[in-house]
Design brief:
The complex is a heterodimer.
Chain A: H1 10-30, H2 34-60, H3 68-85, H4 90-110, H5 119-138, E1 151-152, E2 157-158, E3 161-162, H6 166-189, H7 191-201, H8 203-208, H9 213-240, E4 242-243, H10 250-263, H11 269-291, H12 299-320, H13 324-355
Chain B: E1 12-23, E2 26-37, E3 41-45, H1 52-60, E4 67-72, E5 75-76, H2 82-88, E6 90-92, H3 105-111, H4 121-126, H5 129-148, H6 164-177, E7 182-186, H7 194-211, E8 214-218, H8 222-228, E9 231-236, E10 239-244, H9 246-251, H10 253-260
Parallel strand pairs in B: 3-8, 3-9, 6-7, 7-8
Antiparallel strand pairs in B: 1-2, 1-4, 4-5, 9-10
Helix pairs in contact in B: 3-6, 5-6
The chains are: A mainly alpha, B alpha/beta.
Chain lengths: 356, 264
């Protein structure tokens, strides 16, 4: 019998090592421009984390939820208030607690999933989006009675050391995202993830096997909101460096939904691929507009083109590859490795034998 | 056939008392009672629309009958839900296949181990040693079932891609993985060819023989039913029209009439 597959196979450890070397050593040594950190890498990590949250509830548990940005707002404002009012918690402690506060909202707004499903659930979960933003706007306490509407986020201080440079903030985001991604992968591959997927694929059968629908769905919503909450806090403190409810509007929720679907439903690496695509594509389009057409195309037209292409891609992926870009990447890897193993080695051997 | 059973047929383990179920004005089951003895193979037969699947759904808690009770292991269950029945040791398969289509065969069977999984999601996220131990035990048991059902070569295939006969096998495997004391099989051999049917019969009898699992099955193939079951209950129009050993059933005039039709 083959050895039992335990969470980390050799392949996973190699992948992990590659990601770590790339993100900890290669990126910081070769990328010096601040722009890359402040405008691409940091938001990428934050949004990828939020997309993992969306994946858990939508990709793994199959609950069509649309309110990730609401939970992000809850996390961000919880973070602001915790640092302001309970400074003893420290940055990491506050981050964890704000995640838990978001998770509490997740449980509350996940409860409709027990009665409604599909598009109706999507509408029901929109409530979280609007309620949380409304609550923050309505009660001045959440903004510490700031009248300007935009609050500056406090500086990040961990164990007495300030983390204010873009590179330092990148490392903060990287560390949090890496740890939470690992935990998410463990859950997704373990018994927790199997329960989620069982509920997604056939809820009646799952229940007949002893999987509690109530517990599984509420758990998925809570964990999803936790991830979104932490992501929201990082998004506000490392990327925006300010707090305003408008930053967490429905557009952001849709953006995360797109990242989730384009990346590939039910995959963790798809969250990173999807987030990278949605973030980088406009940058690419702009530079094409500026460098190829030399500004002949109006910026508003470019941003419209961007929307059109996103929409088209969504339709194309839904029809031809519902598992998204993560699956394309997987196929590519398989093709490459099978070529490498079978034909290439044969060719290599024959060419070698001819030579000698 | 004089052979000694390892698990002697015992007391009633499941009793269905005066169940009536209606969907709006359509009566699916009317005042039906029968029992299932421990360690036996019990077949439910009847023409299409006789209420066989509805009966299983009542026992399993998917449908709530308007009248009547279900007793399991000597206890009357007041609010039956699939979850409660699963926890009490009743597992089932479905007529139209209810597998987790996007999950692999192994993962499907592992979901059957849910009630043998005690660790919570935080422990799973942190991969504590006890999680690894439990996961290994569950995987070992699942692999055992996979090799018992002779489906080793497809264990990593997503179930949705498998042909019907194999999916039926996987569903049986998932039910077996629960280690339940009773398994309800809703048409386990529907759409199978003779060879596949023979295999399935072999598995059902082997499980019953080696583990003593009580089997309740709905089946249309009379040859199969008469061969493998200890007792048969016949439903027609939601009522019991015959209950007894295969020989008794075959001699029952009402049953013959129901199947062959009768001149009025």
């Amino acid at each position: 019998m083959k050895p039992v597959f335990m969470t980390y196979a050799k392949k996973d450890l190699i992948n992990l090592a590659i990601c770590m070397v790339l993100s900890v050593i290669i990126i910081p040594t070769f990328i010096k421009t601040e722009y890359w950190y402040t405008s691409i890498l940091i938001p990428w990590l934050c949004l990828a984390l939020a997309t993992i949250g969306q994946q858990i509830v939508m990709g793994y548990t199959g609950q069509l939820a649309l309110g990730a940005a609401g939970f992000m707002a809850a996390g961000a404002f919880a973070m602001f208030n915790l640092i302001l009012r309970v400074p003893e918690l420290g940055f990491i402690g506050s981050l964890a607690v704000s995640g838990l506060i978001a998770a509490a909202f997740g449980i509350l707004f996940g409860l409709p999933s027990l009665k409604v499903r599909g598009i109706y659930l999507m509408v029901a979960t929109l409530a979280s989006q609007f309620f949380i933003i409304w609550m923050i706007d309505k009660f001045g306490w959440f903004k510490n009675y700031d009248s300007s509407g935009i609050i500056t986020a406090q500086d990040i201080v961990i164990l007495g050391k300030p983390f204010t440079t873009p590179l330092a903030m990148y490392f903060v985001c990287l560390a949090v995202t890496a740890v939470l991604t690992l935990l998410a992968m463990n859950m997704a591959r373990g018994s927790t993830g199997r329960n989620w997927m069982a509920v997604r694929d056939m809820d009646i059968a799952a229940e007949s096997m002893g999987v509690s629908l109530l517990k599984t769905k509420v758990q998925a919503f809570a964990i999803s909101a936790f991830y979104c909450g932490v992501a929201g806090a990082l998004f506000a403190f490392c990327y925006l460096k300010s707090l305003e409810p408008v930053a967490f509007d429905i557009k952001l929720s849709f953006k995360i939904l797109f990242m989730c679907i384009l990346g590939g439903l039910g995959t963790i690496n798809g969250a990173f691929i999807g987030a990278a695509f949605i973030l980088l594509f406009p940058v690419l389009l702009n530079s094409v507009g500026n460098n190829v057409f030399h500004g002949a195309i109006d910026a508003t037209i470019i941003s419209s083109i961007e929307q059109v292409i996103f929409g088209l891609l969504m339709i194309i992926f839904m029809i031809y590859e519902p598992l998204g870009m993560a699956k394309l990447w997987e196929n590519l890897k398989q093709k490459f490795s099978s070529k490498l193993t079978s034909s290439n080695i044969k060719n290599l051997k024959s060419s070698l034998s001819k030579k000698f | 056939m004089a052979y000694e059973r390892k698990f002697k047929i015992g007391e009633p383990i499941l009793e269905v008392n005066n169940i009536s179920l209606a969907f709006g004005g359509v009566k699916a089951i009317t005042d039906t009672s029968f029992n299932v003895l421990e360690h036996e193979v019990r077949a439910i037969i009847g023409p299409n629309g006789a209420g066989k699947s509805s009966m299983l759904n009542c026992i399993n808690g998917i449908y709530k009958p308007q009248q009547g009770t279900v007793s399991f292991k000597g206890k009357e269950i007041p609010n039956i839900t699939p979850n409660i029945m699963a926890q009490m040791g009743l597992s089932r398969t479905f007529q139209n296949l209810a597998l987790f289509k996007r999950m692999s065969v192994l993962d499907n069977i592992l979901v059957g181990r849910k009630l043998h999984t005690k660790t919570n999601f935080i422990e799973v996220a942190l991969q504590l040693p006890k999680v690894k131990k439990e996961e290994k035990a569950n995987r070992d048991r699942s692999e055992e079932i996979i090799s018992f059902l002779e489906i080793e070569d497809i264990k990593d295939t997503p179930v949705g891609k498998l042909p019907y006969g194999l999916q039926k096998k996987v569903e049986l495997g998932r039910a077996l993985a629960t280690d339940s004391s009773i398994i309800l099989l809703d048409e386990p051999m529907a759409g199978m060819n003779v060879e596949e049917k023979r295999d399935m019969c072999r598995f059902i009898l082997k499980v019953n023989d080696e583990l003593g699992t009580t089997m309740v099955l709905i089946e249309h193939d009379m040859g199969v039913v008469m061969d493998i079951s200890d007792r048969v209950v016949v439903l027609d129009y939601g009522k019991v029209i015959g209950d007894g050993t295969p020989d008794e059933i075959m001699a029952n005039q009402k049953v013959i009439d129901a199947y062959l039709g009768v001149e009025h």
